[in-house]
Design brief:
By secondary structure, the protein is mainly alpha-helical. The chain contains 14 helices and no strands.
Length: about 325
């Protein structure tokens, strides 16, 4: 692990000094060099992620696809979302806008006596072991992500943004990043606040985010894969997460007034959607939202295929900008 960390740091240093730092000097951003160095790390992580997506997850989709690829344009848009997310454009905006604000906020709070709770100091000799603290932090962030995901489906205003993610009817390894940018900002703000409060080390935080994102790419893959009776309860599989994206189950989570709960199957009525977990199924099992049926259903949202009261199906947009704009319209109640 130390060898890999040293190699990563060396490559990050070289990339920053050779490419990023000269550009920042040219743009008059010398006062943000520290943030630029951090952003370079995220860029390098993103490059490695894209490589794994193509080289590892891609062959799995070709090996056992759930369905034939029929809408390549929709997939190309998802690739664009992935590149924006993973190769630094979106992350760069956050670094140079939100990071200074957060630094100022938490600096002021610490002056006022704000305490952070370091998990790795909870049980000296045990939780301060790197692999133990890493697993504990991973579990904490996964629980936070589970709760965020429940909120995205529970609150109508949040669903107005998150529904873009579910509108993909041709789900592939690229679909994880298909999110409204405002939805991503809200989630990232919550995650950063939690990271500050529990005192996770920067290196561990980057590793947790990278593992979570790659696992989510696998979850969304067009691959007929499951992990067996035991494995399904230890780590989320493509089958487990595809149940979350199934058309009728998605509709149940948003409380569609045109389809009362009593008309839904009993299992959906009780769970109001299922499989909200990001990495670990344990939270779905604990909160009784787990569905382990071995099925691979069509994905999307019911109002994309079933006309509403006006006789029309809902349009979620066919391109990046139209998808973002329609999300804003839904948020203000005009979409």
């Amino acid at each position: 692990m130390e060898w890999w960390t040293s190699l990563f740091n060396s490559v990050q240093q070289w990339l920053f000094e050779s490419v990023i730092q000269p550009v920042m000097f040219q743009l008059g951003m010398a006062n943000l060099l520290e943030d630029g160095y951090d952003a370079t790390g995220w860029l390098l992580v993103g490059l490695l992620q894209v490589l794994v997506i193509v080289v590892v997850i891609g062959p799995l989709e070709r090996w056992r696809p759930v369905e034939a690829v029929t809408d390549r344009k929709a997939i190309r848009i998802d690739i664009l979302y992935t590149l924006i997310q993973r190769l630094g454009l979106f992350r760069l905006v956050l670094f140079f806008t939100l990071t200074p604000l957060f630094d100022g906020l938490f600096g002021a709070l610490r002056v006022e006596g704000l305490r952070t709770y370091n998990i790795d100091a909870f049980w000296p000799g045990v939780t301060d072991l790197p692999w133990v603290s890493f697993l504990l932090y991973l579990a904490v962030f996964d629980l936070v992500d589970y709760l965020i995901h429940r909120g995205q489906h529970r609150f109508n205003w949040w669903w107005a943004l998150h529904s873009l993610h579910h509108s993909q009817q041709q789900m592939t390894k690229w679909s994880d990043s298909r999110n409204h940018l405002l939805d991503d900002v809200l989630r990232d703000v919550i995650i950063v606040l939690v990271a500050q409060l529990i005192g996770v080390a920067p290196g561990q935080f980057v590793a947790i985010v990278a593992i979570a994102q790659l696992s989510e790419n696998l979850h969304h893959a067009n691959a007929r894969i499951w992990f067996g009776q035991l494995g399904e309860r230890l780590w989320i599989s493509p089958r487990f997460h595809r149940r979350h994206h199934a058309v009728s189950l998605v509709e149940a989570t948003m409380g569609n007034p045109h389809r009362p709960a009593k008309s839904l199957p009993r299992s959906i009525e009780l769970a109001r959607g299922c499989n909200f977990g990001v990495l670990l199924p344990v939270w779905d099992m604990l909160f009784k939202t787990a569905n382990f049926e071995l099925r691979f259903d069509p994905t999307g949202i019911e109002d994309q295929v079933v006309p509403g009261a006006d006789g029309k199906v809902r349009n979620y947009g066919g391109g990046f900008w139209s998808q973002q704009w329609l999300g804003i319209l839904r948020l203000v109640g005009r979409g």
